[in-house]
Design brief:
Blueprint: H1 2-19, H2 23-26, H3 36-40, H4 44-50, H5 63-66, H6 70-76, H7 99-102, H8 111-114, H9 117-122
């Protein structure tokens, strides 16, 4: 029985590894922003901690007077004038969200990609330690 279980385990591991996407399988998606709500799914505790910070509320402090001022929006939103806040078809990117430091996450934010650190970085994830 022991001799049979090793080949079966190796076959299972090979199938799992083949099922994980490689860069060629996700590169076709355009770079873009996913929004902190997508990050929250896997990084809930970090999201909760961030949501209590000044970064999370950076847009709110602008008030109506400055909420449309491009000079303010570049610092108080995520990705302004870089395909993020204010662009078509992007999530709510008010405030300084995860992707302000980690880079636009549309390519790397899938769970199957995030399980592969090298692939995540290849697809745009920036480690905060490297900033």
């Amino acid at each position: 029985m022991k001799r049979l279980s090793i080949p079966i385990a190796l076959l299972f591991a090979a199938i799992v590894l083949m099922a994980l996407p490689g860069a060629e399988n996700v590169e076709h998606s355009p770079p873009g922003y996913a929004g902190s709500q997508r990050c929250k799914v896997c990084h809930y505790e970090i999201f909760e901690s961030w949501s209590k910070t000044k970064h999370a509320h950076a847009f709110v402090v602008l008030g109506e007077k400055h909420a449309a001022d491009p000079n303010c929006l570049s610092c108080h939103t995520t990705g302004y004038l870089r395909g993020g806040y204010g662009s078509d078809n992007v999530p709510d990117l008010r405030g300084i969200q995860c992707e302000a430091c980690h880079g636009p996450g549309l390519r790397y934010s899938r769970a199957s990609v995030m399980r592969q650190p090298a692939l995540s970085r290849e697809l745009g994830l920036t480690d905060v330690d490297s900033l």
